[in-house]
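so my prof wants the structure for this chain in the tokens format not the other one, which i didnt know existed until like an hour ago. anyway here's the sequence
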Amino acid sequence: MTLGEMLQRHAGQAMVATAIISEAVMTQLRGPAAGIAVGVAAAAGGLWAVQGRARQKSAIAMGPSAQALTWQAHASRKPDPSDSDTYRHIATRMRQTTEHVRRTTAERGLKKVTLATSSETGSWADARSTGHGRRGHVWLGMRWLHPRHTNHLPAVLEHELAHLQRRDTGKRIAAESAAVAVAGLAAGLLPLPAFALTAAAAWALNTLFFWWGELACDLAAARVCGRTAVADMWREDLERDRARTVLPRIWVTVRGLRTHPPLRLRILCAEHVPLPDARGQAVHPLHTPAAS
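here's what i got, hopefully its the right format
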């Protein structure tokens, strides 16, 4: 996400929050107003949906350019004698990933999926995706291509491809917009305690919906890569979190819980939730042993 997109997103969120809070204050001062409540709810939910859809379409439109600049620039480059072993390995993994995604895109009901690495701060372990219709874009941090961690590439890639296959980007935008509309309606019709409780419930349900999607994609990855591969990936993340000092660890955990379930829950589900359509023990095309 560019700086301009980030500022635009936060500006939209601030507008929606200001409108709902102002409506709640006016309700306490003047009493409920059904007409205003419906108008604010529709405007807030609509603005949230339009903004989310614009970000979604922008990410997909920029996907080919991002792939050309950050991915193909290395994957299609001819090896040079001065290249380090690590760089050669990363470029090879990029080529393998590109071929695997190209080969399996149609099987997933998708038309085109682009790949890119992220240049954002802290993007070393980045892994996220955006989809719009049958097109998708996946961002992968360099961690998943590095020799020491690339054994987890199949699991993290299958997780992100599952998001695209499930059309999770659109579902999330719809769920968030509905939650915002409910909060706007409650702000204009309910007393302050009831409004706060309703808004908290909408936020909690939205979070649970996000968790459900993440766990479903974990299971999709487990069906293709095996339970152990997915559980080990999250165990490594858990160890990485434990290496942080207390305050950064708390901040990362609290921020992540808004959209992602706790790592221990993810490990538990990956290991024990039934997988009725598991593909057996076939080795994933991108599988490689862990480096020492």
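also thought this was worth mentioning. The first strand starts at residue 112 and ends at 116.
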